[in-house]
Amino acid sequence: MKRLMVAAGGGGDALAAAMLHAAQHGNEPALILTYAWDRLMIDPLPGPRRADNFTNLHQAAPDVLVFRPDTRPVPPVGSTLPQLSAAVRPGVALLDPYAGAVGMTAQINAAIRYTGADRIDIIDVGGDALARGDEPGLRSPLADALTLAACADAEVPTTVVVAGPGLDGELSEPDLLARLGAPAFQITAEHASPFLPVFEWHPSEATALLAAAAHGVRGTCEVREAGLPVRLTDASANAYRVDLDDALEINELSRRLIGSTSLPGAEKVTRDVCGFSELDHERNKATWLGTHQPADDSTARDVDAALSTFLAEAAARGSDYATFRRIAEALNLTQAALTDIRGRLTNDQELTGTSLIWPTSPRGA
């Protein structure tokens, strides 16, 4: 028998699922179901991917498609999941949302039968799975709500595990703590340390903040292209358990998505409930990126000087840290240029929680 986890929002939650599983269950066999839904710096196409966007997916059982190190996205698609499957102990399998919650439920139930699991854990870093839908900071309601809706008709009981409340920059930590009970467990530096090398290439901000918090980092960190301030506090390394029925009661969108049969249909419901979907933002951003090519290291732009200016301005805004994604988008860097500058910044340091995100000044170190 394998434990079964469902990453609520995609690749970052899949990495967190592996981390939380190791913290609780060590090397026990497990399977993680996840959307193939990477950020535009990895995958230039908006939205999630489906099976025909990959070669060499392994069909472990009917409706259970597992990533392997030799799985490849079909260009121009990009994906972190083949590399993630090589880096973590649990298996990583595709969750395809294009047939809506009904299609996802069929995949989840197939995974239940394949693993023999007697329960499901939905893993959500940040806590937007517990959004009502009207919160001003909410930015990605569709993915998490669709996951909850799909698990509502699963063949075994489901628990939502919220780790690092507020770390995704959507719902605030105080609002989330009012919806959560006592912490179920805490992620420690010992739990997070084996996963630190993954963050050298994996772009998840929220899960990187979770790992940093586990290493004792505290303060304000700028995230995303908008530079949203996220506070790392003593609660940031905690994980909380919420019964799925309680989560569905909070999340109106998830209730409305039960029985949905297509991703476009689910997106329409999301617009009706929340006024937008994250796919709207991704489409707009992809169009913008198509006309604003990022700088690379062959240009005359002085990236180091631009970085120094950015960090000084961030410090003046009251930020102690910035994520590498925030740096990349503020400086309009290619992935290659970001990899280079990150390597130079962290070259003389042991990879720890304080090098998962970067201090804006010595006071943030």
Descriptive account of the structure:
The protein has 365 residues and is of the alpha/beta class. Helix content is 39%, strand content 17%. It contains 15 helices and 15 strands. The protein has helices spanning 11-25, 81-87, 100-115, 141-151, 173-177, 189-192, 205-214, 244-250, 252-257, 263-274, 278-291, 303-316, 324-330, 335-346, 353-356, and strands at residues 3-7, 30-34, 54-55, 58-61, 64-66, 72-73, 91-94, 120-125, 158-163, 185-186, 219-223, 228-232, 238-243, 321-323, 357-359. The strands form four sheets. It has a seven-stranded mixed beta sheet with strand order 7-2-1-8-9-13-10, sandwiched between helices. The protein has a four-stranded mixed beta sheet with strand order 12-11-14-15, with helices on both faces. Strands 3-6 form a two-stranded antiparallel sheet. Helix 1 (11-25) runs parallel beside helix 7 (205-214). It is globular and about 55 Å long. It starts with a strand and ends in a 6-residue tail after the last strand.
Structural class: alpha/beta
Strand content: 15-25%
Unreliable spans: none
Percent helix among the residues?
25-40%
The number of E-state strands comes to: 15
Strand order of the largest sheet: 7-2-1-8-9-13-10
Encode the helix/strand succession as letters. EHEEEEEHEHEHEHEHHEEEHHHHHEHHHE
- Give the termini separation: 44 Å
Q: Key features?
A:
365 residues; alpha/beta; seven-stranded mixed beta sheet; four-stranded mixed beta sheet; 15 helices; 15 strands; 17% strand; globular
